[in-house]
Amino acid sequence: MVKNIQHAVIRVSDIAVAKEFYLNKLGLELLEDSGNFFAAKAGNIRLSVFGGYEKAGDPENPKTGVSLIFRVDNLEKAIEEYKAKGVPFFGEIIDIPNFHKFMESEDPDGNVFFLAEYHKEPV
After folding, report:
1. What is the pairing mode between strands 100-106 and 89-96?
2. What is the rounded CA–CA span in Å between residue 60 and residue 62?
3. Looking at residue 114, what DSSP letter applies?
4. Distance between terminal CA atoms of the chain?
């Protein structure tokens, strides 16, 4: 039986660009780095990032199908801080009453992620 998510994997086209984004812009903690791979700590989740991915499909919509949700304490403040670092956001904040509010973004390879502020624990 699955208890929780402990580890997520993302494949990217440029490992250096991904490191800059996930470590410097999002501020995740580096756990290990071995050239074409790095791992970062995002709360209680290990995020492994592998280089060498080639974008496939529609060049206007190069999504990988991977989506991550990063929990934040204050959504509006986090969005403001990340925008100042050049992180793009799309649309408006969506608020699901009695659960969470969130906003969509993506990394340089089009991997979608969300910042979310929870009104109650998700599980």
Report:
1. antiparallel
2. 6
3. E
4. 14
DSSP 54: -
Give DSSP secondary structure letters for 58-83.
-TTS---S-EEEEE-S-HHHHHHHHH
Give me the pLDDT at residue 52, please: 83
The reply to whether the predicted model has a pTM over 0.90 is no
Task: Decide: helix, strand or coil at residue 84.
Answer: helix
- What are 41's strand-pairing partners? 29, 46
The predicted pLDDT at position 4 comes to 64
For residue range 67-114, what is the model confidence (pLDDT) as tens digits?
788 999 999 999 999 999 999 999 999 999 999 999 999 899 888 888
Mapped onto helix, strand or coil, the DSSP state of residue 13 is coil
- Would you call 19 helix, strand, or coil by DSSP? helix
Q: By C-alpha distance, which of 17, 30, 28, 37 is closest to 111?
A: 17
CB 79 within 8 A of CB 39: no
Domains of the chain from N-terminus onward: 7-53+66-118 (3.10.180.10)
